[in-house]
Amino acid sequence: CQPVPKPESRVEVCDLSPCPPRWKVTPAGPCSSSCGLGLAVQLVTCVQILHGQEVLQEEHLCPAAEKPLTSVPCVIRTCSYEWSFSEWSECSTSCGNGIQTRQDFCLSSLTHKAVNPLFCRRFPKAVVVRGCSAGPCPELGGTLSPGAGLQPVTPATHLTAAAAATERRHKELDVPLSAGPREQTKPGGGEEMLAKRSFLCVCGSLFLNATGTINMTGVESRDCTVAIGRPLREEISVTILESSLNCTAGEVLLFSGRMMWRTGCRKLPLSLINSRTNTLIVKQRVVLPGNGVILQYNSRTATKKYYQDCDQQLFGPQGEIVNPVQLPEERQEVVCRTFITVAPRQRISIRALSTDLGPEANQTHFNYILVRDVSTMKTVVFRGKQQFLWQSTGSQAEIEFHE
């Protein structure tokens, strides 16, 4: 263009009106997951250019329909671990409604072998219990004996029903509910056999009377555990009447409750232990045959309130739990709990068979259930309408119904 004259450079103002506000997106933050699909949060603001400067404006000035997402999907790498499951088991019943279960395990996608479940703790896990139906049950033709069917233990009758069952079981063995030092023999012969029966009955028993004497001497088992249970609003006190424990050999007596823990061997006679709640577990560990303790327990009204008004106590051997236990108009900011205590030789299974919110679903405020194994203090949470089967490792469990 050298032969052609070059025009002069000119700058003209083409539009004096400011640009309209627009959305501004800052770079996304870190991904929420170290592997697999996650979310990254990004900052979205409304800005406008005024006199060459970017000025922050209120969000309503920017077009709402064009606002970018504040969270965007992200994937850093493919996960190396994932949940895997076994096949579903057969239906638990041969007829009627039951449940199916399956085992879950954490699988390495590289080696295709099971690894510690901690590697999969960040990944969602599918349900391991589901309902099933094996068809209608045939009508029974009168072959059941009276009382053969299992009856649920309602909150109003659970204590008396469990106590009656325990009393019947002891009557069949012809021994008292709480065997004291003078109650282990029966006039007229058979003293040795009766004493042996009473020793076998004491270990692993649950005592529900308001007061009683428990003889734990001469038991054949090295570890002998008994439990004492009373209704809520009561507490239990135990007095050691006699003790032949050999402390130097490592023999010991352990007391445990929801709010206390105590061990001892020396100076046990006439010592007083207070459970501070309505249940108490006593465990005796002996080395030498014949050693043990004789204790007497009593119950009384608790000096301090350790429970909520909507709490319940169940002693088994079976029962039904229906929640919420409060009417909607009585709803308060409390956690309703159900305490379950069975004989130390037994374990607890909890099945969630139905979650029916009904037509007044907005008045049913509980949205997850927490189950705690008291012996290990391990807690499991079940949410929504999930059916589940939970089993304890000890003889005590707590259920909390949370909002």
TrEMBL record:
The gene is Adamts13_1. One of its GO terms (biological process) is proteolysis. Its main location: secreted. It is found in: Secreted. It holds the Pfam family TSP1_ADAMTS. SUPFAM superfamilies: Spermadhesin, CUB domain, TSP-1 type 1 repeat. One of its GO terms (cellular component) is extracellular region. One of its GO terms (molecular function) is metalloendopeptidase activity. InterPro entries: ADAMTS_ADAMTS-like, Sperma_CUB_dom_sf, TSP1_rpt, TSP1_rpt_sf. Keywords: Hydrolase, Metalloprotease, Protease, Secreted. This is ATS13 metalloproteinase.
